Every structure is written in C-alpha cells, then in structure tokens.
C-alpha cells in the first residue's frame, strides 16, 4: 500500500477493529466473508490483523471495506467513505505540492484538433485535385509536318 499518514492509519485501524468485532459477535468465519464478498481471505486477514503494508492501493481498500461492511449487515458505504475521505484529502494536498514544482505545459486539445483538420483537408485536396504536370503531346501531321504542342 502507498504510505499513509498517521491519521489515516489510525482511521483504518478503527474501521478494521470494528469490522472484526462485528464478525466475531455474529460468529462468522473469515472464509465465509471471503466467499460472499469475493475478497481473498488473506486480504481480509491482513485487514483485520493490521498488516496494511500487504494491502493494495487505498482505493481498493475502500472497496474491500465497503463490501466487508455490507456482508456484515453494516453500512459499507459510510465505513468506506470515512477511510477514503482522509486518503483523498491527504493525496490532494500532496498533488498540489508536487504540481507547484512542475512547469505548466498544458496545450489545449482544440489546437491539436485544428492541426489534424488542416492536415486532413490538405491531403484530401491533394488527392481530389492532383497537380497538373506539363506534358508534351504530338499532333498529327499537317501539310507534311509534325508539330509538338506543350500544355502548361
């Protein structure tokens, strides 16, 4: 998992502790939850045992929390929202810090479309109206002389 700040880790610990307690109160085995939610039992165990370094990205953990909570009869959306709101807030702060250091090289997409349209129009014009090449034609003999005419 990506590095989380202390507040996010504490929030995740609270959520997973609550999920584990509810599961144990209802006497549901972790394998049953895994079968119902289609989340690997190893991932669920890592969640419950607070081995967060074994988990995937936070957005996937949010989905795991939601499905796990729903399987236990809890409001999975509310549980997952409390976790992800902290993660999104932290990530957006990091993105603002990183974007300040980078130069802004934004090119509006409309310029690309205009350039593409001009290239396509030029190509189509060339195909439909090929350039006229000067050619020589021989005309039949008139009064015994053959004449050459050039077209330009």
From TrEMBL:
Q: What keywords is this UniProt entry annotated with?
A: Membrane, Transmembrane, Transmembrane helix
Gene3D superfamilies in the cross-refs: lambda repressor-like DNA-binding domains
Give the transmembrane region(s): 106-128
Gene Ontology molecular functions: DNA binding
Q: Does the keyword Acetylation apply?
A: no
> What InterPro entries does the entry give?
Bact_Cytoskel_RodZ (IPR050400), Lambda_DNA-bd_dom_sf (IPR010982)
Protein name as annotated: Helix-turn-helix domain-containing protein
| Taxonomic source organism | Nostoc edaphicum CCNP1411
């Amino acid at each position: 998992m990506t590095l989380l700040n202390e507040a996010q880790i504490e929030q995740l610990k609270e959520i997973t502790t609550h999920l584990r307690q509810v599961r144990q109160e209802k006497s549901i085995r972790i394998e049953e939850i895994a079968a119902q939610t289609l989340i690997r039992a190893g991932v669920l165990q890592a969640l419950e045992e607070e081995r967060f370094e074994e988990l995937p990205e936070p957005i996937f953990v949010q989905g795991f929390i939601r499905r796990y909570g729903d399987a236990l009869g809890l409001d999975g959306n509310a549980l997952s929202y409390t976790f992800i709101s902290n993660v999104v807030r932290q990530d957006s702060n990091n993105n603002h810090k990183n974007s300040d250091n980078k130069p802004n090289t934004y090119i509006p997409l409309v310029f690309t479309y205009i350039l593409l349209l001009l290239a396509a129009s030029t190509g189509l014009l060339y195909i439909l109206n090929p350039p006229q090449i000067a050619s020589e034609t021989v005309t039949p003999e008139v009064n015994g002389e053959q004449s050459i005419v050039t077209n330009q």
